[in-house]
Write a structure and sequence with these properties.
Elements lengths: L2 H19 L10 E6 L2 E7 L4 E6 L4 E7 L2 E7 L5 H4 L9 E4 L4 E6 L12
Antiparallel strand pairs: 1-2, 1-7, 3-4, 4-5, 6-7
């Protein structure tokens, strides 16, 4: 193996490491945001289609937005607006919950979720 071959291999490994650790990975094609109201599934919204859907129930009104492969709650008429201030979600198992309106947005799909901590 020549010196140039070794340098090229190191460059490819470094690029792969950068892409892996920065999260630059394609999303699973089957990922969806599932919206539950009062523990009943209402709709499945594919993350690869930008859309906006408003849910009005006896509990209140929420607007769920899918944009750039991520789901978020754009507006809600609840008092504290914790769900609106939550970061957009895109990984399997992540969720946004609006307790006053009994609304849950949860990501389901082919992409494996990453463990960010281990507790015993």
């Amino acid at each position: 193996m020549k010196k140039l071959d070794f340098i090229i291999i190191i460059m490819f490994l470094a690029a792969a490491g950068i892409f892996y650790f920065t999260g630059f990975r394609p999303k699973g094609e089957g990922s969806v945001a599932v919206v539950y109201i009062a523990e009943k599934e209402k709709v499945r919204l594919p993350l690869n289609d930008d859309t906006e859907k408003t849910f009005t129930t006896d509990y209140g009104t929420n607007t769920v937005v899918i944009k750039n492969g991520k789901a978020s709650i754009a507006s809600a008429d609840c008092r504290d607006k914790i769900c609106v201030n939550h970061n957009a979600i895109s990984k399997n198992g992540e969720s946004i919950i609006c307790l006053p309106h009994k609304l849950v947005v949860e990501i389901e799909g082919t992409e494996k979720s990453e463990v960010d901590a281990v507790a015993k």
